[in-house]
Amino acid sequence: MLPVKFRPLLKCLAAATALAVLGAAPASAANTFRFAFQGDLKSLDPYTLKETFTIAAHGAVYESLVTRDKDLKLVPGLAESWETPEPTRYRFKLRRNVKFHDGTPFTADDVIFSAERVRAPGSNFQTNVPADATFVKVDDHTVDMVLKNPNPIALYQFGGWYIMSKAWAEKHDATKPTPVSASTPSYAALHENGTGPFTITEHQPGVRTVFKKFDGYWGKVESNIDEAIFTTISNDATRVAALLSGEVDWVDPVPLQDQSRVSSSANAVVVNAPELRTIYLGMDQSSDELRGSNVKGKNPFKDVRVREAFFRAIDEDAIVKRVMRGQATPAALLIAPPLFPLAGEFKRPAYDPNKAKALLTEAGYPNGFEVPLDCPNDRYVNDEAICQAVTSMLARVGVKVNLIAQPKAKYFAKILKPAFDTSFYMLGWTPSSMDSHNILFEIAGCRNDKSSPRGTTNLGNYCNPKVDALADKIERETDQEARNLMIKQAYEIVMGDWGYIPLHQQALAWGVSKKVKLVPRADNQMMLYWVSKEP
């Protein structure tokens, strides 16, 4: 269980008005919660994009076999219980009398179908289910997951694996997942059919999405809202103004420069809480020639000296102080310290531009070189500003960075699988398993085997077979002390290779109406089923 400081509950009071753009309604209408995010909700297919806001939005309508509570502890979901009759077999007892939103019953067939669909080409969630797992139907409400090897963390990522209806998917030709790069939306990208406490009655990608309470939901919901209306408000000033005027009840993020103004307002407060997401930079370390660079015929990032130079040229303390206004913690690893007991044994290498220049000269680039930097401008706190700071810092050592900052829909379609179209990029990551194996397998795992989900989010294809070998052992190890030592060894290899440049863990920065009570969970997922609002 996470430390107490990662389990804050927000309890606040005040008022909000309706906004025509957000779907204003008469005073006698349903209790409506209105929320806005800087980015959009592009696809309703729960296997399209492994991104925190999107996963949380899908979590209002879809459900997992095993989910996480307010403290991020594993708890039953659509599986009311599970057991391990043998080390390589998990047996799930499924809830009875659960129906999808279209009225069809939830059964073992839906679990088996979803297990295959989530691991199919085009899914961004292939690592959420063990690659070697075979799902076997025992009866309509019992499913076995059979593994080739013991796996003590097999269930850790189930929280982001949502169960879909086999019959519905077949009926609407949606048996295959919708890739993030898809130019034409599938039926599943525009419609939903989950078992969750809310349905979606309207979805306009990039504009608004309307959630309605599902009267046929099987469980109890800690929420008194009847509907929720989501809108994309990309402009910071407009988003803050909507919160302060009461036009919306929740926004993410509140720009750092506006937080004191929001907190001192009559209508809203800023919720600042520690977050488990790590913001980092990655580099293309596999292409023979670096795309978008003036260096032809070779890839500078294949040289460890260049990678170290980039790391040492970036003043993360300055980024935290000036760009993040103190609302971030410098990172030495790709994982937040609360998720790895030995994280304190790692120290972030010192900012040293002189050494960076010397390393570049030694590597054959005394005058630096050009490289593009892919960055979102509507996904993380001050994401574009961070990339602008990195651009400026690298310029001091002779590297000309051409910043490509885009909305997350275009950004993710460009950099993620299958395109992997990036030379240098910024990304944020919270391991969905809350465990280091996720990072060592998905972020730091070699991308050599196209049939394997290993390295799914290893965009630059950093590769060290020693890390892969350790990750495989870590996945099977049941002795926690021995496991932690192997994790430490793997991180030592990754950081010794200067494989990535971890920047910081940002602070959660929600703006919330004083009329609303909700749960700011440490993974930054805002779950609608924990939202209550005074009518």
TrEMBL record:
Keyword terms of this UniProt record: Signal, Transport
Localization: Periplasm
UniProt main location, coarse: periplasm
GO biological process, one term: peptide transport
Keyword Ribonucleoprotein: no
Domain Solute-binding protein family: 73-449
GO CC terms of this entry: ATP-binding cassette (ABC) transporter complex; outer membrane-bounded periplasmic space
Stretch forming the signal peptide: 1-29
Protein family per UniProt: Belongs to the bacterial solute-binding protein 5 family.
Protein name, UniProt field: Periplasmic dipeptide transport protein
Protein species of origin: Methylobacterium frigidaeris
Gene that produces this protein: dppA_5
